[in-house]
Amino acid sequence: MRRCEMVKDKKEEFKNTAKVAIYPGSFDPITYGHIDIVERALVIFDKVIIAIAENEEKRPLFSVEERLEMVKEIFKDTPNVIVDSFKGLLVNYVAKTNARVSLRGLRATSDFEYEFHMASMNRSLSTRLDTLFMMTSKDYFFVSSRTIKEVARLGGGVEGLVPDLVVTRLREKFRLPVTKRKQIGWDD
Ligand code: PNS
Predict the structure, then answer these.
(1) Selected catalytic residue, list 26, 145, 149, 169
(2) How far apart are CA 159 and CA 166, in angstroms?
(3) Treating both helix axes as pointing N-terminal to C-terminal, what angle do 164-174 and 64-74 enclose, rounded to 10 degrees?
């Protein structure tokens, strides 16, 4: 193949693949920390595919159908966000799309080791996929799906940390009233 044809091919490939990112995760449930990452990624990428992992081993609180319903509803007015789910290896799912980048949020140094291992393993499984890390915004660096579930389960308020729809779904799930966030001693 002549060099100029190779460059043309590369350009075609670039046009077809470079601007799509996959944002994989459990999203059990989605938080404003996740949403912030998606919104910032849309400044860089034309399209973001939110890929909800169907990993039953993690014993999710919400079924994959429930998580899909919530995330689809939250992004229903954002046409360049696609919401999907996947089973099995991320690299196999990515191979079916035209994405080359996996997007992950980093909250703190404590996230780094897990993320580093995952990115390195994915890279060893497929050199087609690279991982791009975005620092979680300062407003949400303490927010995780795990702590959201714990606080909601114990009756604490999580308003402002997850969308209202998620607050409602958590309330339904735990059959508990999720109260407004309140700091003891401040309002009394
Ligand atoms: O939100 P999470 O739970 O931190 O997301 C983790 C996720 C779903 C991105 C990760 O567990 C994953 O990619 N699972 C699919 C299975 C896989 O590809 N494993 C190999 C990478 S270690």
Answers:
(1) 145
(2) 9
(3) 160
Question: Is the Cβ–Cβ distance between 65 and 84 less than 8 Å?
Answer: no
Looking at per-residue pLDDT, the higher value among 52 and 11 belongs to 52
CA distance 140 to 15: 34
CA distances from 34 to 103, 137, 168, 187 (A): 11, 10, 18, 30
120 is catalytic: no
Give 106-126 pLDDT, tens digit per residue: 998 878 999 999 999 999 999
Specify the residue for token string 């735990």: 174
Strands 47-53 and 130-135: unpaired
CA of 170 to the centre of ligand 1 (A): 23
